[in-house]
Design brief:
This protein is an alpha+beta fold. The protein folds into two domains: about 70 residues, 2-Layer Sandwich (Alpha-Beta Plaits); about 160 residues, no CATH class. The strands form two sheets. A four-stranded antiparallel β-sheet has the order 2-3-1-4, with helices on one face. A hairpin with a 4-residue loop joins strand 2 and strand 3. The radius of gyration is 20 Å and the shape is elongated.
Amino acid sequence: MKTQTIYSITGLTCNNCVAKVQAALVPYADEVEVTLKPPEISITGQKAGVEKLNKVLETVGNYQIGAEILPTSNVKNSEDSKSFLTTYKPLIFVFFYILLVTLAIEMASGNFVLHRFMPNFMAGFFLIFSFFKLLDLAGFASSYAMYDLLAKRVSTYGYIYPFIELGLGTAYLLTYRPMLVNAITLIVMTFSSIGVILAVTNKQKIRCACLGTGFNLPMTTVTIIEDLLMAAMAAWMLIN
């Protein structure tokens, strides 16, 4: 199934602008639809990252693709717990799946050891999350560049990040160089959380790319907790 993504766009002033933008981007997607009111662009089957698309737009005018817009149905309503559970169901399932497996490992070992539980939990976290990101690497990189501070400036980082998670997950699973791996995790996850915090603080209604492009998860405090939890666990293992 082809993915449809909706972005905000600046610089549109008339229907002629709409036609120019649409014509310029048609070669880079299966379908492009541009609207003046509201100023949005819907792209189906996107074949290039946002950075590339913006470079194309620079050749036809002062147009700029901005943040990805989430469908209204996916925006979290803090007063509706059912809506929260529905919205975050994939993330909740993944979390409890990892928790169940790591607790089962502890039960099979005969006793609960926190220093064994944490690396196993983090291994599951990074391996599963990297898997979903790698299913649509280009799509993830495009979404990630909307809020991550480094990916905004260096588009290649969005393509590398899932492999960083894959490497960290494998290292935790193999208990390879624990101090080094925990230090890298602390740095990566703390830095990643900064972009998320800024996006949430600025109330940007953009997609969270934590599970790739397969799910329309909104960027909220849940994403902040997810990143800081991994950073906190890595920090705890470094000092204990």
